[in-house]
Amino acid sequence: MASCTISLRATVLFFVGTFFSVVLNLLQKQRGIPNFPMEFYNSYLTSDWWVHPVVGVAAACIGLLYPFFDQKLGEPLVYKREWSSVMRCVAVFVGINHASARLDFADNFQLSLTLAAMSIGLWWLFDRSGSGFSLGVGIAVLATFMTQLVVYSGIYRYTKADFLFVRSWVPCIFFSGGVTFGNIGRQLAVPEEEEEKVKND
């Protein structure tokens, strides 16, 4: 029963992650932030279609990791989690992504500081757990490194890159995305956690 529940949660997270990848990628493309080289378009991959399922798989992994570590570490809930709180977290995450595409600063460093403050604010408002912060930082570091490898290989390209082939605010987006999909995963896991409590009682 538990494996079936995990599979269902992973499937939901995959499709939610894929959907957000499509929407947020469109926001970024409006400002010409990601830039696929023409020779890449002419290759066998033909487009950036692969980005969305990759993000979907990452969202599923993140959404399953957060409740797993909460359970293993015995992380106390700071807030009673409910879908309205999760939806507000999603709205703030979309706002942070929109800000990365729309806000104009004198340089990327100022934008990065602003987005970093917004990302930590998102964690403070909707998480406040040590495991959530640690996982968010780990996800940001790993995802940024993977993105840098992809950009270095010539598959993907950022305009005005200022942090080892990518924009300096990219880790902020990955951090806030980790917290957001972690909260979605936690909320999806709530019925399963309640069943475990009933069994233990």
TrEMBL record:
InterPro entries per record: INSIG_fam
Predominant cellular place of this UniProt entry's protein: endoplasmic reticulum
TM helices/strands, residue ranges: 6-28, 49-69, 132-152, 164-184
Membrane topology of the entry: Multi-pass membrane protein
Pfam families recorded: INSIG (PF07281)
Record GO biological process: cellular response to insulin stimulus; cholesterol biosynthetic process; SREBP signaling pathway; SREBP-SCAP complex retention in endoplasmic reticulum
Cellular compartment(s): Endoplasmic reticulum membrane
GO cellular component: SREBP-SCAP-Insig complex
Keywords, alphabetical: Cholesterol metabolism, Endoplasmic reticulum, Lipid metabolism, Membrane, Steroid metabolism, Sterol metabolism, Transmembrane, Transmembrane helix
PANTHER family linked to this entry: INSULIN-INDUCED GENE 1, PROTEIN NSG1-RELATED
Family membership: Belongs to the INSIG family.
UniProt name for this protein: Insulin-induced gene protein
